[in-house]
Give the backbone structure.
Amino acid sequence: MKNFEGFGLNPALAESLARMKYVNPTPIQEQAIPLALKGHDIMGTAQTGTGKTAAFAIPLVEKLLTNPRGTALVLTPTRELGKQIMDIMHQLLGSKSPIKTAFIIGGEPMGKQLSQLRARPRLIVGTPGRINDHLERGSMMLHDADFLVLDETDRMLDMGFMVQLERIFKYMPEKRQTLMFSATLPNNILTLSKQYMHAPKRVCVGETNVVASNIRQDVVRIEQDKKYNELLAQLHDRKGSVIVFIKTKYGADRMAKNLRRDGFTSDALHGDLRQTKRDKVMQNFRTQNFRVLIATDIAARGLDVPHIAHVINYDLPQVAEDYIHRMGRTARAGAKGEAISFVSQQDGRKWHAIERLLNPDAAHDESAGRPARNSRNRNRPGGKKRFYRSRKKAA
Ligand code: AMP
């Protein structure tokens, strides 16, 4: 398949794609779209930044346009991700579309959601907790929802949404099409797919435990109390927008404040902020009103901000898989990106787990704290990650 024309999409949808300058499908789109258009269930794994959203959004919109009755539901773990999905859906539907949508996420007032739901939306995008609330109070009906997308399913389960997901499925017709996407396929996801999907087709792009090859990954061995000065030095050395990952919500706020004090435009994004504040932070970051976004893992999952040039792991992630998701915040849609991880002595186990995930067949020379000489690092073209020690003084 060379371009989108080969899919035989509805002219309105083809027009939207042209407007969005989507000419050629990405590999995940090339695999998933024809299967979804034929009505198959899909179990998809793909690296972040591969065009996964459009891989489900295009067949979903095609179905809404061709079947005047059907309703679709998209479940996603976080509000930010939901907003990105909603934006793509609106672009695909076009501004003049009569198809109504509802955006149902937690942390927002009920009033607007209730009026969107009363208008009989044919597309609902939202987070499982709030969708469940509406189902239980009777303000949402899903008996004709025949198209279901589960995005970032592994993260939804990590966040404890299994119970809510199962409740939501009960409100939906059994005869439906289900598209499930996940970065990883742990056992609980395989069980979920067996139980709730019909003969799903596997769609897989690349190895999911590989960081995109256009991201240069560096590591700084550093003591915990020297990290902040090293961060300042790194920010001085680098150009362009940066996302800094940090462990705690409180730490994120404090760091954004300290960076502003030290001359960098910065703001924090984490799960404790009110929705309006989160939207404002994201809007300001997207429009490059500030340069350094300090984020916790949950808030940053799936963010698609094309100008992020650097990812800094100030704290390593609790879960090794999140390292790959963090890397996926840069080098979006084929651009180049750089990443650096601060690894302190206390981080030994976490770092080892990340190394194992990225490079499972490499022997690991623990004493030197780096991959053994003959190890094959699949995550960096032409060799290993670069390791260096922190500089003595911040520049
Ligand atoms: P995603 O993996 O869905 O977050 O998408 C990553 C980025 O690729 C987003 O900025 C999309 O707008 C962009 N994108 C997705 N599909 C295409 C395509 N076929 N052509 C050009 N850009 C695309």
Remarks:
- Residues 52-66 form the longest helix (15 residues).
